[in-house]
């Protein structure tokens, strides 16, 4: 089972299904009360006004601006890409977002609209959001997105297989998707709202890291609860521990339900305190969001102008 995507120190853990299960079930349990208290405590921290503008700009630069609806059109994707390039048309100093995320059949539209920028084009794949499809279909989904020009792929794990204890199946599928990605970065969506326990979130995080995921992502945004601070704490701790063990930096992406600036700042505080300041970059932390960007832009104007501008000053997604 082990391949070059697993560091040498974890070769034994990924040797076969039994070894993988032993490793994942042997991870320390998550102290539910402790992680929730720490998340709540960090969420109460305030930051100075001088730091707030930096935090807002940092959060903007970490947004994966997303549209994943059945009614998506070429025009909607082009409009989203225009907003990604110039989030506030009246203020050219506002950072561009990190990426635009769309379905595979709309990747070519986004690639064309973002040509000449450093904004990544991300595509969901592997029968998003359910993950209920044959492996061959999932891999074809990935190849379609990558061939169309996607530089990032957001896959969903088979939660049924994971919850049934078929860790090897999930591991091998992530590896196969990683191989199909080629040079594209892979974000592995755990759908933490369906994993039920923090222990499962920790095991799924490590499973995705062992299999070669470049990012671990909380949610599809289609299941409630989506991203939460305690769950994100568990995932940030996983990438911190992974780095400590291997020297490799892997990212985290909370997605779904993060809509206002104060919540985004709470996540940035968690990133700094749990994973470390090295993760305060869009290379290692992202927000999967659509409406969040509007609030960040309004709060940015408030910081600079001293009064609340209101929603009429930003484009509506």
TrEMBL record:
Pathway linked to the protein: Carbohydrate degradation; 2-deoxy-D-ribose 1-phosphate degradation; D-glyceraldehyde 3-phosphate and acetaldehyde from 2-deoxy-alpha-D-ribose 1-phosphate: step 2/2
InterPro entries, per database record: Aldolase_TIM, DeoC, DeoC/FbaB/LacD_aldolase
A molecular-function term among this protein's GO annotations: deoxyribose-phosphate aldolase activity
GO cellular component: cytoplasm
A Gene Ontology biological process term: carbohydrate catabolic process
Catalytic reactions on record: 2-deoxy-D-ribose 5-phosphate = D-glyceraldehyde 3-phosphate + acetaldehyde
Keywords: Lyase, Schiff base
EC number, UniProt record: 4.1.2.4
Pfam families from the UniProt entry: DeoC
Family per similarity comment: Belongs to the DeoC/FbaB aldolase family. DeoC type 2 subfamily.
Name used for this protein in its record: Deoxyribose-phosphate aldolase
